[in-house]
Amino acid sequence: MVRHINTRRLLYGGKNRFGVLNSWIFFGVLFFLLILLYQRDATSADIFVTPPPRPRIFCVIVTYAYRHEHAAIHIQKTWARHCDRYVFVSDDVHILLEPAVFRNIGDKWQRIRAHLEYIYKYHFHQGDWFLYANDDNFVVVENLRHMLQSYSSEELIYFGCKMRSKGRSQALVYMYDGSGIVLSSASLKRFVLEALINEDLCSSHSRGSEAAKELGRCLSNVNVIAGDSRDEFKKHRFLPFEVDIHLGGQMNDSVELHKYFLEHSYHPVIDMNLPVSLKSICFHLMLIPITYDLYYFTQNVHIFGASQKWDLENLAQD
């Protein structure tokens, strides 16, 4: 009679017992390896360090009615677009710029106070760092963001082109207001909530050309540190004057602005020149149309075949 079922194949002790055993071993090893792989991936995920969040930069750009079409509109079309958020502050309305309007404030210090208080009240949640710049500045926002990655917006610190007052027993440190000032969110909050409301810490009176100094005094009085914005080679990232002055020429102490800077620069100026960083952030524009040239070369030009590794030794010696 033909047997339809081979009972020996169902028994562990049958002649195929080693084939069955090998199958079980194979699947057991495979299952064990899968467990090890899962544990390795889980462990790797546990030890993976999440990079710090990208600093959000809110740009405050100072302009005036007579400069809306001449200057501010061109800033809006170029570097301002690289800020996470931006707002123009002006003395009149404009259909495209849509600035926050502050009328009848003639004193520069009074305007700075009003601008920063407004930003804190209505835009504080939109930025980690707040750049206060002019419509005749050119800013490489990506370089600013790179610099700020080394700091926390919770630090009481601010940056710019660092200056020092003269003729005092204890020099006042402040930032040159012609080349941008960057405040951490903690510093802006401390300035508005503690400095502005206390006349002993921060004057509410007109200061004229002393506006930048008064801002520095107010921030210092509420323990906000004036940071060093130079790069790792001590080269400057916030430049007070035009590109041609810093790259192709030199400062002239017979020029009033240059003389003032040379006398008050926090860092020594050797041979009328500032060493310029390859990671420059902000400088002054003499001719507004050059904004488009600078924007093209900083944002659009690709250098094919160029090495991505900096020659650090040569850079340090430049």
Describe it.
Helix 3 crosses helix 6 (211-221). The longest helix has 31 residues, at 17-47. The protein has 318 residues and is an alpha/beta fold. Helix 2 links the parallel strand 1 (57-62) and strand 2. It has helices at 17-47, 68-77, 108-123, 141-148, 185-195, 211-221, 243-247, 256-264, 290-299, 312-317, and strands spanning 57-62, 85-90, 100-101, 129-134, 137-139, 157-159, 162-164, 173-175, 181-184, 225-226, 282-284. It has a seven-stranded mixed β-sheet. It has a two-stranded antiparallel ribbon with strand order 5-11. 37% of the residues lie in helices and 13% in strands. It is globular. 31% of the residues are buried.
For the largest sheet, list the strands in their spatial order.
Answer: 3-2-1-4-9-6-10
Helix content: 25-40%
Main pleated-sheet profile: 7 strands, mixed
Q: What is the total tally of β strands? A: 11
- The average pLDDT is 85
Structural class: alpha/beta
Q: How much β-strand is present in the residues?
A: 5-15%
Q: State the distance separating the first and last CA atoms.
A: 100 Å
Number of helices: 10
User: What is the helix/strand order?
Assistant: HEHEEHEEHEEEEHHEHHEHH
Uncertain runs with pLDDT below 50, 5 residues or more? 5-15, 42-48, 310-318
For this structure, the quaternary state is single chain
Tell me, briefly, the overall form. Answer: globular
Radius of gyration: 31 Å
